[in-house]
Amino acid sequence: MRRPVGEQLREWRERRRLSQLELAIEADVSTRHLSFVETGRSRPSRDMVLHLAERLDVPLRDRNHLLLAAGYAPAFQESPLDSSSLKPVAAAVRQILAGHEPYPAVVVNARSELLDANSAVGLFLRDVSPHLLTPPVNVLRVALHPDGMAPNIVNLPVWRAHLLERLRRQITNSGDPTLHTLLDELSSYPGGEHPDALGPAASVALPLVYRHAGRELTFVSTLAVFGAPRDVTVAELAIEAFYPADNETAAMLRKGVGAE
């Protein structure tokens, strides 16, 4: 049974740590009306649902849930990445991935499931157990599982702490119960979270130090998303690109070390 829209809006407000007064001021509505909406004494209009959801930075998928709970049709479509409507997006993704070679890059959804990758990612997957690469592949599981990348991550405790904290932020933002389950699973893996030293690159960006074919490669990564998305799939896409953090790593990758 779908929960009332007012109850869901209140939950989103509390997740964003806003009082009714703060949200009312931000949304330019009366606290009385907002209170009536949250308690179910007043049915919000479609525009009001979207207006409040915008101010609360609710993900597009959940904005559709709010609209359905209020008795309205969803406002945002959800199309497969390989659909005709998303051809420009898919083409842009492929161009970014190809253009980033010889450095690794992946495309994931809101649950960190792998949607696409360039060939350079192979250097991270060389020693990963096949059971972790059966779709849907979760990149966080691949990174931290003892049968995944973890044994080759030289600075595993700090990288593990970074990934777990990033996942916690995703949970706060989305409230997705699947991510709660994933966090519990990943937290149970060995690896620690409190290293004594982060290394010289940490003063600029947290590095990933990865052992590959007897060499230590050092990377920094960036996360990119699409601006002003109007499709749920597009809104949940993220491209993580890994860059060499030192000249030695850059030289090795240009020589094709990932293809060994």
UniProtKB/TrEMBL annotation:
Which branch of life, at top level? Bacteria
Looking at the Swiss-Prot or TrEMBL record, what is one Pfam family this protein matches?
Answer: MLTR_LBD
Domain HTH cro/C1-type as annotated: residue spans: 9-63
Under InterPro entries, the record lists: Cro/C1-type_HTH, Lambda_DNA-bd_dom_sf, MLTR_LBD
A molecular function (GO) term? DNA binding
* PANTHER family (alphabetical): BLL4672 PROTEIN-RELATED, BLL5781 PROTEIN
The molecule here is called: Transcriptional regulator
The taxonomic lineage of its organism, from the top, reads: Bacteria, Bacillati, Actinomycetota, Actinomycetes, Micromonosporales
